[in-house]
Amino acid sequence: MSLGPIMMDLRGLELEDDERKLLQDPLVGGIILFSRNFSDLDQLQNLTREIHALRKPPLLIAVDHEGGRVQRFRQGFCSLPACRAYGEIYDIDNKRGLELVEKAGWLMAIELLCVGVDFSFAPVLDVDRGISQVIGDRAFHHDPEAVANLAKYYIRGMKRAGMAAIGKHFPGHGSVVEDSHHAVPVDKRRYEDVAMLDMIPFERLAKQHLQGLMPAHVIFPQVDKKPAGFSKRWLQNVLRQQLGFQGAIFSDDISMTGAEALGNYTERAEAAITAGCDMVLVCNNQQAAISVLQTLKVENDPASQLRLIRMHGRKQKLTLTELHNDPEWMMVSEEIMSLDKAPELEFGDDEIQS
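^ that's the sequence the OP posted. Answer follows.
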């Protein structure tokens, strides 16, 4: 069985009988986990083990685990700082900032891989212009070149652990006030203005560093009337052809307000796939995911399959509990957690923040 183009979520801490049946649907290719799916390390490892055992190739298991406000698993995991922390150190000492961000990428990735999660939707490549609150300190920096440099080293750390990197939110979410979870953001700038600022990190990293990418539910009317994640111009003409990106494209959650203009859930999924997405996220509305599985008509794309298969994480010999005795983990975790500042607001499960 191949990996289908739909990524859905689960209701609770363990698979229920109807969910086991759903996950056998050939249109399903992945699961995204939320904080409601986590109670402790043993429970999480049992859940991911069961999901991976259901099919061959195994379903992809993802999570949003950036640090700061967006970290789904807490107890037993390192408390990761928001990405802005590395940018602030980078401003004082470039070398030190890059060393720390590479360690942070490794730490985030190795902990997730040890509990059976294939990847986190990370890193954020948006440029923080002081406009978007939903991005804010999730961004590494306000300078696009600094974002690209910091992200490059973060990805290097992820790769060393064995995890593919997924940059988001192409071509940039940092220059709009509206949050696409609750509104339809519109960026009225010319393509040239977007390319000279927000797109720089994606351009720098697209060919050699990113295995995956997530587009934004932002409309750039000077380029296309559709949000970027549903736009052939953005995904095929700009991302694939101009930037030379060959990795997997994951839609942002089509349950978000920013996707509603594309029609019902099946129409949204069809639009995303037609535009160039390899996998479509349907989150926090399991009935909507079921309706998509019942009505979506798509043909198997061998190239898309290859891109998705490459997203599986490297299997680890250690459990996360055993990793806690590893000398490198002990040193790195202490160093990274010393940077953490308690998040003022942690996003809930109804906000994917991908």
